[in-house]
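Something for you to look into today, if you have time. I want to see for myself how the chain folds. Leave the record below and I will have a look.
***
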Amino acid sequence: QVQPVESGGGLVQPGGSLRLSCTTSGRIFSINAMGWYRQVPGKQRDLVAVITRGGSTNYADSVKGRFTISRDNAKNTVYLQMNSLKPEDTAVYYCNAASDTGARAFGSWGQGTQVTVSS
């Protein structure tokens, strides 16, 4: 199965910003909502944000007002703009095809991209 490829993570100070990108196959991208998820060691992978094919979005309460998900259908790419980052946002971030609510993720997981928020 085709794995998504995530990029854009790094080390940032509290209050800073990062923009994550994720590219996957055109077939997967065109027929599914796309979600961003995050995971810290020892915990389950949680939904951060999801965007449907039509552009409707849904966010975890902890990131509302700070994160923005978007997609470029021509590039088969989904983005996550993260502003006002907090130490508790530190995690490995993954993207995947998802149900419209983001409750279910489909397909293979990629390697993810590490986001570390620390002074």
Observations:
- The CA atoms of residues 33 and 54 lie 9 Å apart.
- The chain has a mean pLDDT of 94.
